[in-house]
Write a structure and sequence with these properties.
Low-confidence stretches: none
CATH architecture of the largest domain: 3-Layer(aba) Sandwich
Strand content: 5-15%
Distance between the termini: 44 Å
Radius of gyration: 26 Å
Order of helices and strands: HEHEHHHEHEHEHHHHHHHHEEHHHH
Number of helices: 19
Mean pLDDT: 86
Number of strands: 7
Oligomer: single chain
Largest sheet: 5 strands, parallel
Length: about 375
């Protein structure tokens, strides 16, 4: 049972019910990595009782293999290849390397895909489920879009998932799109175990924005959050970190440094600016990060598009770069901000350090007094 996805499940269920009575439907799910798109597709596939099912999943390793994903998707239906118009059958068979031939007519391949789906659905309603569609090879994606846009009164439902921020013909074709957002605070609390409720569950939600994958990863060891001051980037799974940080990779070096400072500093632009100066970087370099839609700068505050973006940028940075940022922030903070200065110096230290030890003692004394 999927928690907190009643609206999405209801919509998908209605589309599948419509397909069972001859009403074609298409829906593209989009959202960040780990948000639950795949889980929704799995739930849909499991509920496809009384329907035929065609499935494919895009992979990075085959994203440059023409028609590789289309073969994966259509393989169970190829027994009907000779029941569609001969020119279309020849074009599709050639594209899928099932018959000898040179080149492929993209229009004929798209038309053949549509004909084959329609033929395969004649005896039983059909659900077409495509995960990670942003990783489909271009010819396969184009053939799928061609067919999806032309389904009319066929008992076929097409469900696909595309990662937010990634280009895909499915998002450029004007097909119906459903954005999958994070879970609500209540559903997030239900997802993690009972022992993680209350303040810990609230902080998990704040750190993850209700991203189910991140929630489950962090809930396994909540002590990681306890050790961090408010606003500090949280550790995130490698898969999430790489996905969220990919856009930052394309930024100029000064912007990447300023972004790393912002990830560790919280939302105070003046503190970020002071720390950037200590690293010989102009905080104006954040303009590039803002143009890349990684964060927004308004009224002296820096707000990341998602807390996981800050965490991912931090997790992907080299240890030496993180230590340099910690040192700069410790120096940029006011003298009386003992707790945060102590934490930053502690994170920057490679070994025993007298000033760090003094500040940590002072922070411990303040904690006892509180």
């Amino acid at each position: 049972m999927l928690l907190g996805r009643e609206r999405e499940r209801s919509l998908i269920g209605d589309l599948m019910s419509g397909a069972r009575v001859g009403q074609s439907a298409v829906l593209v799910l989009t959202g960040e990595v780990g948000i639950g798109k795949s889980a929704l597709l799995e739930d849909a596939a499991a509920s496809a009782t009384g329907m035929r099912l065609l499935r494919a999943t895009g992979t990075e390793s085959e994203a440059e293999v023409p028609f590789g994903a289309l073969l994966q998707l259509l393989r169970p239906a190829l027994v009907h290849l000779d029941r569609i118009p001969a020119p279309q059958a020849d074009a599709l068979a050639t594209a899928l390397a099932l018959r000898p031939g040179t080149g492929s007519d993209r229009f004929a391949v798209g038309a053949a895909t549509l004909s084959l789906l329609s033929r395969f659905a004649e005896d039983q309603p059909l659900a077409v489920v495509v995960d990670d569609a942003h990783l489909l090879d271009q010819p396969s994606a184009q053939a799928l879009v061609f067919a999806a846009r032309r389904l009319t009164a066929d008992p076929v439902v097409v469900l696909a998932a595309v990662r937010a921020g990634e280009p895909s013909p499915l998002l450029e074709a004007g097909l119906p799109v459903l954005t999958v957002a994070g879970l609500s605070p209540a559903a997030s609390g239900e997802l993690v175990s009972a022992s993680r409720r209350g303040a810990v569950a609230d902080r998990l939600y704040e750190a993850t924005g209700g991203n189910p994958l991140a929630l489950l990863e962090l809930a396994d060891d909540p002590s990681l959050l306890d050790a961090l001051p408010p606003g500090a980037p949280v550790p995130v799974p490698a898969r999430l970190a790489r996905a969220f940080a990919r856009r930052a990779d394309r930024l100029p070096a000064p912007a990447r440094t300023a972004l790393l400072v912002a990830a560790a500093a919280g939302d105070d632009l003046s503190l970020i600016s002071r720390a950037c100066r200590l690293l010989d970087v102009d905080a104006a370099a954040l303009d590039d990060a803002e143009a890349a839609e990684l964060l927004a700068v308004t009224a002296g505050r820096v707000t990341f598009r998602h807390n996981l973006v800050a965490s991912a940028v931090w997790s992907e940075a080299a240890p030496a770069a993180r230590r340099a940022v910690h040192r700069a922030l410790a120096a940029a903070l006011p003298e009386d901000d003992v707790d945060r200065r102590a934490w930053h110096l502690g994170e920057a230290a490679l070994g025993p350090d007298e000033e760090t030890a003094r500040l940590l003692d002072a922070a411990a004394s303040r904690a006892r007094d509180r």
